[in-house]
Each structure stands twice: as C-alpha cells, then as structure tokens.
C-alpha cells in the first residue's frame, strides 16, 4: 500500500493505491484539524471489511443471485454476499492495486484494467479514477471504456462522521430525492420505486438521521437505512447535504441514485485508535446506478450497462463548509 497526500489551506486528503482508496479527509477547522471520514490506519486497512473509502467496481451494490444475462449470454459472478454479488465480487476494485497515472500537489489519478471474465463479468474495462482538490472541495471523476457491453457502476465508499462522535444519529441529512427503492433483507430490490412523502425516507428537508431510524418495515429489514434514493436533479444541483453544528458537507453527483447506508453493521470494524467502531458510527453516501439494475428493466432505464467503446464518465464532488 502506497500513500499519497494532496493538500491545500482547507483540506488534507490521503489516498492509497490499494483500492484507489480515499483513506483520510482532514478538514482544517479554526481550532483543530478534524478527520471527517470513518476510516482506519494504513496498517489496519486490510483488516476492515466495510469498504472504507475504496473505489468500488466494476459494479457497486448488489447483483441478485450473482448472475446476469446480456446479449443472449448468462454470466455467473462471485457470490460474496450470501447468494448475491456485492461491490464487484471477492476481488473487486477495492482489493486490487491501482496504477498511479499522474500525481501533483492537488490531484492523483489512478487506473486499473478489469480483465475479461474477472470475477465473472464479461468484457475488459479500462478504468480511471481522479481525485482533485479545488479550494474547499474534493472532486472525484470516474472515466472508463470497455471492449464489449458490460455492467459498470463505479463509485466511492467513504463513510462520514463530521464531528468524530460515537455515531451519526444526530447528524442532519438532506437528500434531493422524491423516491427510494425498497429492498428485502439481503438488499435486493423487491418493489417499485416508492415516494418518500409520508415515510421515514423523506429527507427533502434536513432532519436528524436518527429521527425516523428503524421506524418502518423497509428499514427494519436491513437494520436501518441501506437504500438507493432516486435523485431529483443532476450534478449541477445539490444532491445531498450532511450537517453538524460547526461543519457542513455538500455532495453533488452526475449519477441518478444515491445509496444511503447508515453503517448498520459497522460494529467491530477497526478504528484509528486501535479500538473498534460501533454500529451507526458513520454514514456512507454512494452515488451510483440502482442495485440489481442489470436484472430489472425498470431500473436499467436509469443506467447500468456500458456499451462497447462507449465512454463511461461520472463525477462526485464534496464541498466542506465551516
């Protein structure tokens, strides 16, 4: 694992070539330097199983029964989440070493070639991930091409806790989404998109994450929020906002959905002080296509398959406001 630091007067970002990982995000507050990622040390990173800050690929989230059919052929994938495929498989993009394509004081660009039939997926994918600092913002861009039609959904799996507290239940969250996707207890979509209005999934106005936690059967199935929200607007508009008393993080993305995972199963993961995190210690906000979209046409309409020689390009930006 090689580490890379990019820094300016607002932020200090530490990256790793193992998983093209966002390992640390230090915000330079007036009275302190504050780590805002739920993360672990470089020496303990391979002990964690929560995908802390990693680049996820070739397909983020779950593919039901670890298989899909495309262009008349069925592909069988690694089963690494019960009977399902999660985040690309046993050796997804989070567990491989990425090549450093370029490096400067403000940016690092990584690349990795997913081989044809790697983890069972068809097609070779040449993927690039760039982290770039610009003032009080971190921009992540994902750029890829493939030599045959293939499922492709790259994202970052950072968890946030903006005040280093025991959990994120008092963090206020706003999500610019009018619908969410119900799932079964294994995280596979089991119903059409559902309006957030009148449910515990309504974050159109900022509210504490803990306010409606576990208040309905959809959440109880997965021990909290672990659902994709259908975003109302594109990257030019605010996607989500996470807030504590003295710090706010604004997220924007070009992706159509945002998986919100409230760290329901973080208990036992290694922290930065040789201890362990508890459940709900951080919240992951993962811009992506919808889970299992490759097997559900009503979800695939929002994306999930990249055509041969077609350019895949998506962005995420994080702005930190003191």
Automatic annotation (TrEMBL):
SUPFAM superfamilies: Galactose mutarotase-like. GO terms for molecular function: aldose 1-epimerase activity; carbohydrate binding. Keywords: Carbohydrate metabolism, Isomerase. It is an enzyme of class 5 (isomerase). It comes from the Bacteria. It catalyses: alpha-D-glucose = beta-D-glucose. InterPro entries: Aldose_1-epimerase (IPR015443), Aldose_1/G6P_1-epimerase (IPR008183), Gal_mutarotase_sf_dom (IPR011013), Galactose_mutarotase-like (IPR047215), GH-type_carb-bd (IPR014718). The active site is at 157 (proton donor), 286 (proton acceptor). One of its GO terms (cellular component) is cytoplasm. Belongs to the aldose epimerase family. This is Aldose 1-epimerase. It comes from Mannheimia varigena USDA-ARS-USMARC-1296.
């Amino acid at each position: 694992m090689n580490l890379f630091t990019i820094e300016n007067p607002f932020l200090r970002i530490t990256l790793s070539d193992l998983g093209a990982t966002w390992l640390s995000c230090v915000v330079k507050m007036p009275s302190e330097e504050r780590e805002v990622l739920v993360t672990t040390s470089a020496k303990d990173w391979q002990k964690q199983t929560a995908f802390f800050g990693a680049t996820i690929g070739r397909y983020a989230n779950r593919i039901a029964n670890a298989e899909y059919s495309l262009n008349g052929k069925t592909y069988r994938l690694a089963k690494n989440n019960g009977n399902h495929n999660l985040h690309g498989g046993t050796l997804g993009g989070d567990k491989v070493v990425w090549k450093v394509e370029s490096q400067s004081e403000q940016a690092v660009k990584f690349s990795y070639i997913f081989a044809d039939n790697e983890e069972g997926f068809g097609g070779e994918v040449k993927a690039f991930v760039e982290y770039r600092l610009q003032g009080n913002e971190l921009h992540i861009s994902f750029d890829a091409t493939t030599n045959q039609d293939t499922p492709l959904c790259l994202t970052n799996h950072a968890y946030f806790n903006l005040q280093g507290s025991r959990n994120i239940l008092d963090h206020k969250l706003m999500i610019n989404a009018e619908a969410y996707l119900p799932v079964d207890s294994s995280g596979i979509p089991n119903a059409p998109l559902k309006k957030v209005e009148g449910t515990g999934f309504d974050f159109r106005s900022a509210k504490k994450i803990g306010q409606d936690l576990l208040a309905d059967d959809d959440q109880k199935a997965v021990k909290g929020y672990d659902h994709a929200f259908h975003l109302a607007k594109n990257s030019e508009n605010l996607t989500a906002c996470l807030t504590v008393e003295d710090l706010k993080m604004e997220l924007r993305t070009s992706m159509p959905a945002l998986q919100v995972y409230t760290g329901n199963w973080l208990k036992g993961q290694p922290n930065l002080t040789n201890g362990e995190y508890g459940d709900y210690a951080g919240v992951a906000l993962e811009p992506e296509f919808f889970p299992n979209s490759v097997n559900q046409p009503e979800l695939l309409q929002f994306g999930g398959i990249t055509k041969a020689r077609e350019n895949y390009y998506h962005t995420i930006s994080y702005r930190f406001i003191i």
